[in-house]
Amino acid sequence: MPAPTQQGKVCIVCGKDCSQIDRIKDAEGRYTCKPCHDKAAGKPKAEPSIDALYDRPASRPCPQCDKPVPPDAEVCVACGYNLRSGKPVKTKLGKHDPSRAAVLEASSKHRAKPKLWVISGCAAGLLASAGWAALTYSGGDGLAYLGIAVGLLTGIGVAAIAREHCGPKAAGVAAGLAFLWCVLGKGAAAGALVLGHGPARPAPVAVNESLAQIILATNVAKTMTESGKTLYWPAGYTPQTAKQQDHFPPEVWQEAARQWEANGPSWRAEYARAQQETLQFEADEKFAADRQDAFLSQFAWLDLAWGGAGIVLAALAGAGVHKLAKREA
Question: Structural domain boundaries of the chain?
Answer without folding.
Answer: 61-111, 114-201+305-328, 209-279
